[in-house]
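Bench notes, afternoon.
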Amino acid sequence: MSRQGREAIDEILRLFELRGDSEYGGEAVTQREHALQASHFARQTGASPALVSAALLHDIGHLLHDLTDDAPDRGVDDRHEQLGAAWLARWFGPNVAEPVRLHVAAKRYLCAVEPAYLQHLSEPSRVSLGLQGGPMSAAEMAQFQASPHFADAVLLRRWDEAAKIPKLPVSGIEEYLPDLQAALAAPHGMRGQV
């Protein structure tokens, strides 16, 4: 693995060690538990290493900002998807960074096209949905569907919403290091790599 790849993984592990035990936005799981459950569900479906990595890292933006855990309850959208995707793009290609950037849009999309999805959102997820713009309009849906990462973002969103089960036994982060390494080594995985 390259020096930059080692730096990326070391920084990811450091963030989870430093902030992974913080509350996940009013849910009954921590940031770490949520991330590990999402990547567990991704792996169960046979997702690629890039998409498993995106599932693991989709909320990394929450570990990067300095806002309190109750920011949504105070009417603040932390825009964690933008922050996380920009941070990940330093090391990973668009197959990781773009589903992360689009996973909030995917929630808004699913709420517009699947009424049952909206009804099954947890209360904290409903609160953040309001801050994020609510269900998409027809024009927003058309634009979202045109993204080459549309389908991956929708898959990621479903794993994200499912990953809120207290005490679910899943593997630790070490189990996902090979996925991260493969995603870093993939074409366009590292910035500047061809």
